[in-house]
Amino acid sequence: MSKLLIVGSIAFDAIETPFGKTDKILGGAATFIGLSASQFNVSSAIVSVIGEDLPQEYLDLLSEKNIDLSGVEVVKGGKTFFWSGKYHNDLNSRDTLITELNVLANFNPVVPSNFKDADVVMLGNLHPSTQLSVIQQMEKRPKLIVLDTMNFWMDSELPALLKVIKEIDVITINDEEARQLTGEYSLVKAAAKIQTMGPAYVVIKKGEHGALLFHDEHVFYAPALPLEEVFDPTGAGDTFAGGFTGYLAETGNISFENLKNAVIHGSNLASFCVEKFGTQRLEDLDKQEINQRLLQFKELTQFDIQLQ
Ligand code: AMP
């Protein structure tokens, strides 16, 4: 079975949307990535750090999905990373209210020895030096390294970010961040510029407007499924990344054609994530509903046009 190594935060999140508010619930990029990737036939592990305050039931939830947690460091007396956000009425934009790095501030990731030969590495949104450290610990070059990042690191750690971007194969980034990273308004130009920085593939996420995949002169577009109810978009980007990398690890095929399918799997899983608060919807997802929605994706995008 292929191995997928996931690096990212495990967090307490407190979320406010127009539909309600939560106290501290389970969140974090690695959590969403892991839950999403667990839908595929892969052996996955999370590298992260938590404090002693994270309830055991949260860890059990991840272990029950067969995610190896031996790379999750528990800091004695430490406090787990805490993030709080508030969504605007359109749910497309949000304000970060609180970011308490806590144990994440001094995080030195340690890749478990049995995952140093992972086939696919998913570097969740973290300090770029932490992401680079994970790459450097791998015994052999993974078949595929995917990186997610955000504007925060572009503002504060650009040289370190550019250094890690050089080493990766795929970057997932949202439209505004792609513009910020390159200074290009056109996403086509931005994607071309990012490819000169390192990654051969660029995925630009556009929230409820889907995702674009760029490679050389090729472009592929996947819409987001139009949903009746969007409740909480938190973790949608990470869920996308988990579906994208889980599928690629399972199939072992990293051609452009197969990356298109990976984008669809990522978008499909993300469509579930937003239907409930936090990780709730991902926890009890079954194969049947996933497949049903894949069919909806197909119907949404297929047409048979006759050229004159
Ligand atoms: P997304 O909605 O996909 O952008 O991801 C939201 C998740 O990212 C939340 O569960 C947060 O706990 C986590 N998160 C937010 N800010 C950071 C940060 N600076 N470092 C690591 N994880 C973060």
Structural overview:
- With 308 residues, the protein is α/β, with parallel strands linked by helices.
- It has helices spanning 29-37, 56-64, 128-137, 151-156, 158-165, 175-182, 187-197, 236-251, 256-273, 280-283, 287-301, and strands at 3-7, 11-17, 20-21, 25-27, 43-51, 67-75, 82-87, 94-100, 120-123, 144-148, 170-174, 201-205, 211-215, 218-222.
- It has a nine-stranded mixed beta sheet with strand order 6-5-1-9-10-11-12-13-14, with helices on both faces. Strands 2, 3, 4, 7 and 8 form a five-stranded mixed beta sheet that branches.
- Helix 3 (128-137) runs parallel beside helix 5 (158-165) and helix 8 crosses helix 9 (256-273).
- The radius of gyration is 18 Å and the shape is globular.
- It starts with a strand and ends in a 7-residue tail after the last helix.
- The mean pLDDT is 95.
- Bound molecules: adenosine monophosphate.
- Adenosine monophosphate binds next to strand 2 and helix 8.
